[in-house]
Amino acid sequence: FSSICFDASVEQIFITILSGASLIMVNKNIITDIERFEDFIIENQLTHIHSVPMFLNNLSNNKIAGLKRMISGGDVCSRELVEKWCGEYKFYNKYGPTETTVTSIEMHITGLDNNKKTVSIGKPISNTQVYILDNNNNICPMGVIGELCIGGDGLARSYLNKPELTNEKFINNPFNLEERMYKTGDLAKWLPEGNIEFIGRKDNQVKIRGFRIELGEIENQLQKMSEIKETVVTVVGEEENDKSICAYFVKERDVDISYIREELSKVLPDYMIPSYFVEIDKMPLTISGKVNRKALPKPDGNITTGVEYIAPRNEIEEKLAQIFKKVLKIESKVGIKDNFFDLGGHSLKATSLVSKIHKELEVEIPLIEIFKSPTIEEISRLIKVSEKNIYDGIKPVEKREYYKMSAAQKRMYIINQMDKDSTTYNIPSVLKLTGKLDRTKIENTFKELINRHESLRTSFTRVEDDLVQIVKEVSEVEFKVEYKEVNEEAVQDIVKDFIRSFDLSKAPLLRVSLMKIREEEHILITDMHHIISDGVSMGLVIEEFTKVYTGEKLGRLKIQYKDYAEWQNELFKSGKI
Asked: CA-to-CA distance for 416 and 501, rounded, in angstroms?
């Protein structure tokens, strides 16, 4: 079935021949035509078929005469696929990367547990050891997700002419120093009966709005729904602060998007619920039979919530619909029954929504009310019973020796005073840079960002009974990018030593280190204190760093964080909040 370019062909060819069986070659044009392929099986009296699950799923529901054994491998096997064929044939689910010689783990499935919604990949084959490890290479307890690592006789020696990649992926086995293991990059967990459940790719872990999200976990939950035949979950959106989760699915039978959202919300936190659901007729496949993610259609900006569209009925609802579209950056029509969070909203966008409602409708809605009443119809009712409160925009404050802290900064400062040596609120980032790099330009870029953002040259202290922030002049800030030339083995220890506590009274609360591993390979480490930054700010810094380093000019900032802090304190003083 597989091309000789793919490792599965080794197993298909040589197990067949060494068993004294007949190996049947099939033309690609026949494989892509399901009816012709089924006729081909019957005509050639085939007894065994080894294929990717997506292809097996496309076969008809009729029993194919003569076929005895069906082997699924190379991708995630769904419960629906097992239910479809398990009673008809001997059904096997296999797992194994090329680096461990095709198959490492397998399971002969004789039936399904009704209490389990996923299909196990089984147990390690003979002479193979499997470990599920955390980020520090410690064994994960049963039921805890970690990286699947494989040792044993099946391990390849190395990647040909790629020593760096070999050292990264083939490591010394910490539990048997005489052997090596391969880090697959796949996530899995042990099940109570000793089988292994495959979760998804580690590089399918994404960070959106500060939350680390396993896209494979969302796919698993979608695949458990009987209404969904196949699914793939991806991230859409170019800007760091505007990324969204998109779920593509092929339906088994008619299903409303609102029902899918409701079912997911029972098992997943809000931040893991996809913003977009795109129904497609069939999954695009690569030549190897796996899902071709690059061929998936991009969402058109129209988010379907499954709620019947009811147009705005008055001026307030019309304005709210326009505000929803601006904040959510969507093109689709927004009805008065549509839920802000079902349309892709989250806590940060809800904050922006409250601000725009205040500015454009002169009514201040508490943020908590958006979570309680997230539709245009409900917010409109709140506006009608609320007093007018003219929007008081944030304005730049005059230059002073010091400025008041915001509520969030005060909280962070007090926590820091309780344990000044703590690194709990450090925000470190480690980036691997490849290609030619200009050290001087790196440092100058950071200096330009420090000049641009006052927060990066702000310190915090107490003046009499007041907690204040002091914005330093650029000339008063001492900043230098640390530079070292190191061996790759030392990187992890250097990163650990780099992350240390900050003295909040000394700006900048930012450290940067550049490590040269080889001529065109560097590690860039940054560390900031949470009192001047958060997940969104980090994304902004990375985005602006890239622009400045490549020579792009940035526009002047109209306000700085100190202006917001002063504005907030004035609102507290006036009793508006």
From this structure: 10
3-class secondary structure per residue, 178-205: CCEEEEEEEEEEECCCCCEEEEEEHHHE
Tell me the Ramachandran region of residue 352: left when phi exceeds 0, alpha when psi lies from -120 to 50, beta otherwise. alpha
Phi-psi region of 161 (alpha: psi -120 to 50; beta: other; left: phi over 0): left
CB 494 within 8 A of CB 486: yes
Locate 295 and state its tokens: 């061929």
Crossing angle of helices 439-452 and 535-549, in 10° steps, is 130
- Contact by Cβ (8 Å): 475, 519: no
Which structure tokens are listed for 201? 């790719």
Q: Is 71 helix (H, G, I), strand (E, B) or coil?
A: strand
Residue 538's contacts (CB-CB under 8 Å, 6 or more residues apart) are 427, 429, 528
> For residue 196, how far is the Cα from the chain centroid?
23
Do residues 418 and 520 make contact, with C-beta atoms less than 8 angstroms apart? no
Buried b (16+ CB within 10 A) or exposed e, 30-41: ebeeeeebbebb
Q: CA quadruple 322, 327, 329, 332: dihedral positive or negative?
A: negative
Distance CA 95, CA 101 (A): 11
39-89 residue pLDDT tens: 899 999 999 999 888 788 778 767 788 889 999 988 788 888 888 888 889
> Helix 315-328 crosses helix 347-361 at what angle (to 10 degrees)?
140
The β-bridge relationship of strands 244-251 and 228-236 is: antiparallel
The pair of three-digit structure tokens given for residue 145, joined into one six-digit string: 């997700």
What percentage of the chain has pLDDT greater than the value 70? 93
- Residue 384: CB atoms within 10 A of its CB come to 10
Count the neighbouring beta carbons within 10 Å of the beta carbon of residue 302: 11
**pTM reported for the whole predicted model:** 0.48
Alpha helices in 186-288 (DSSP H): 215-223, 257-267
The span from the first CA to the last CA of the chain, in angstroms, equals 67
Answer yes or no: are the C-beta atoms of 423 and 501 closer than 8 Å: yes
212-229 per-position pLDDT tens digit? 687 888 988 898 888 998
pLDDT level of residue 242 (50, 70, 90 thresholds): low
For residues 486 and 137, give the distance between their C-alpha atoms in angstroms, rounded to a whole number: 22
What is d(CA 154, CA 203) in angstroms, rounded to the nearest whole number?
A: 24
